[in-house]
Amino acid sequence: xxxxxxxxxxxxxxxxxxxxxxxxxxxxxxxxxxxxxxxxxxxxxxxxxxxxxxxxxxxxxxxxxxxxxxxxxxxxxxxxxxxxxxxxxxxxxxxxxxxxxxxxxxxxxxxxxxxxxxxxxxxxxxxxxxxxxxxxxxxxxxxxxxxxxxxxxxxxxxxxxxxxxxxxxxxxxxxxxxxxxxxxxxxxxxxxxxxxxxxxxxxxxxxxxxxxxxxxxxxxxxxxxxxxxxxxxxxxxxxxxxxxxxxxxxxxxxxxxxxxxxxxxxxxxxxxxxxxxxxxxxxxxxxxxxxxxxxxxxxxxxxxxxxxxxxxxxxxxxxxxxxxxxxxxxxxxxxxxxxxxxxxxxxx
Length: 348
Description:
Layout: H1 2-13, H2 56-70, H3 74-89, H4 119-135, H5 142-156, E1 170-171, H6 190-198, H7 204-211, E2 218-220, H8 225-229, H9 243-252, E3 263-265, H10 277-283, H11 290-297, H12 302-310, H13 312-326, E4 338-339
Antiparallel strand pairs: 1-4, 2-3
Helix pairs in contact: 1-9, 2-4, 2-5, 3-4, 3-5, 4-5, 10-12
Main location: secreted
Cofactor: Ca(2+); heme b
Binding site for Ca(2+) 2: 215, 267, 270, 275
């Protein structure tokens, strides 16, 4: 089959450390996810910086386009960064904060669930912020720059170009302990995923559509090796993996593969193109992660998967809408709740 032969060639080409999109392979937690308000869009606007920094989007765009040429992995890395930011404290740039030297209180990015966030994502935002600061000092939040950069990278990879509503302020706290209950796992069930997304004001359709970001990017063996050898303690592989794909994955992810540095494409058909190939792959049992393949198996989500697989343009439109919706989660406004950082890595 074309898909499987392409998978083989991609595996040979990409046995190195590459980013995976919003999913954690860390152990499950019994804590409950934060319920974050999704602010009405009237609080954010596309022309928020029309007077404060009218050249904002072109400034950020100059950085993202250069980064995409120099390090294409910056695209999935930054999209994942935006997701991890919004789902924990809201879209407030708290994921960008670095832990103070000697401090016992770890920032979000130090949480186990965030250890595999690629440096290219952070670097892209730091570079964009530095350029924006040189033109519009202390006027533009890191959280808005992250939202714009994520959109830019989506478009550069072939995805939709949607208008980014702005006006977020940067959060004043970043705590690693808040991360575990708020990030999906690579083996999350649909029940767990729908509950988590609902706590952020997102629907089942939003869950399926945003999962489509897995159309680009890669994941490491430890995120899915359990499916290959000991699915849910059965000592057997997950019956919902395409047999030929299973054979290939076992070649590069041995039973001891939890420490393997191999990185395999989340979408075996078109791993560098932002399209609906991810959904078509699920229909052929080509989902790399258990949480992805589960979307095709559950009656609540399967119809949406099939719809996205049939119509690429509908997926792209839906994805832009879902990103806009996600971007309004837990927005901070005003000095009581937020700040405008000069350096995204440090609180004022």
